[in-house]
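Why does residue order matter? Because the sequence determines the fold. Keep that principle in mind as you read this record.
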Amino acid sequence: MPSTPERRISTRVGADLPRTLTNRAMAAFSRRRYGVVLDPLVAVGHHGKVTRTYALTELGVGGWKALDPGLKSLAVMSVSVSIGCTWCVDFGYWEAQHGHVDAAKLHDVPVWRTSERFTALERDVLAFAEAATATPPTVDDDLAARLTGALGTEAFTELVAMVAVENLRSRINAAMGLSSQGFSDRCDVPMGGPLAQVGEA
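Structure:
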């Protein structure tokens, strides 16, 4: 759990969660599940319809079970690192560790091309997550065919959708100015995938 649950965050729309019925319900749920109110809730909580749509989306995504959880975590981390969302990396690192995903693999996501920790399938998933996150996307037919053959059409479709969902999360959080909330004691996944490097050029 975050080590500083009482800290005040800074978002680009304000640090206080508006006191609406929806926000109170969401905050209570967040405290029960995570011990704190998640910073993205504070950020989107300034718009009631956005908050409700976001919550319904997350509830729906939670029911997706076709894709192996480890592959899903790698894809999510790849998107977060590529976009540069430190909140997403922090939370994703903590969440994946609690889901029994190898922390060493998560740490090596930014250098997956040279790391020896990943299987061929994991490398294809990471390549896909990067390519689908690029603007414009650069997914090629050969990569998609390999993944469809290895995963099946249902799990591949879930991978595509999961990468898109994490793009939504990471881009909202990064644009709102959110940073690590302290879910991992020390989030040591380096930032700066290929997309981040392009942004720095």
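The CA atoms of residues 25 and 105 lie 36 Å apart.
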